[in-house]
Amino acid sequence: MTLGEREILGLAYLSFEVSDLAAWDRLLVETIGLERGKDAPDGALTYRLDENAARFFLKEGRADDLVALGFEVASDEALSRLLARLELANVRSKVLPGAPRFAETRMEILEPGGLPIELIAGADRLDPPKLPLVPGGFKTGDFGLGHIALRARSLEESRRFFEELLDFGLSDRIECELLGGYHVDIAFLHANRRHHTVALGEGLPKAIVHFMLETRTLEDLGRIYDRAFDHGVRVTKTLGQHPNDRMLGFYALTPSGIQFEIGHGGVEIDERRWEPSLYHEVSIFGHRSPRSYRDVHSR
After folding, report:
1. Which of 38, 70, 122, 192 is in Cβ range 3.0-4.6 Å of 13 for a Cys bridge?
2. Under 8 Å CB-to-CB from 292, ≥6 apart: which residues?
């Protein structure tokens, strides 16, 4: 299938179990600039950045990890088609109540690494929040929430699952060696015009490596970067640019040790002309540790 024909529209939300709710709240509201939403029916704290009723769900717990991710599906009919294809591949699904995720319909499946994926239809929309710290807003809408980098126990198996069953397209791959002998092999997959909604790599400690939010203006990216330093958030990678999605951005740590990326200016996919490429570096420039400012590549 091509864009416009896929059942999955994009990334809908992320659900985390975290040990320090207050620290996460400060990060999301005071540093990144999101708005607190109303608590979910199951007690989760929620955060908004656009018309969706909630984009982040936080519950207190010891995991300090992503515990579920949500993909929005175009309609109940599209969801039925997708579930039928998954059933033929022996992927089981179960019905979950939609209200806790502000959706009419919610189904759960497991990706090959064991992470729950929630497929929702009929997401609640509200008036967009006022975001005084991010006046230009975030790039969402038809592009979904942003992107996530996930742990794959088997890159080959996870790619088959996302590409053949969920119908994601391959954007490109990066293979290279980093300092310390770390081998990078990452596949980048798209569900809409955003360069990638999911990135997959092996040998990672948590279910999620990082999540990315994209600002609509360069100035908002710069302001969030400044606030991260001002608020004592640990920036792990300075401003830099990736070779594949051309995103300008930086990385920092959440209170749970999960990285987040704030970016601007990522390329958009046109599947009529797009050809996947293989890259041999993770950054064109930047993305260096503020402590050492060394190039991370093994040249």
Report:
1. 70
2. none
Q: Identify the domain containing residue 106 by its residue range.
A: 8-123
The type of residue at 151 is: R
Its pTM stands at: 0.95
Closest by CA to 71, choosing from 7, 118, 138, 116, is 118
Residue type, 29: V
Based on the fold, state whether residues 260 and 155 are members of the same structural domain: yes
Total domains in the chain come to 2
191: left (phi over 0), alpha (psi -120 to 50) or beta: alpha
Residue-wise pLDDT for 140-169, tens only, equals: 999 999 999 999 999 999 999 999 999 999
- Alpha helices (H) along the chain: 21-25, 76-88, 155-160, 218-230
Extended beta strands in 146-253, E state:
147-151, 169-178, 182-190, 198-201, 208-215, 235-241, 248-253
Q: How is residue 22 annotated by DSSP?
A: H
Assign residue 263 the CATH number of its domain. Answer: 3.10.180.10
81 contacts: CB under 8 Å, gap ≥ 6: 7
pLDDT in tens, 211-229: 999 999 999 999 999 999 9
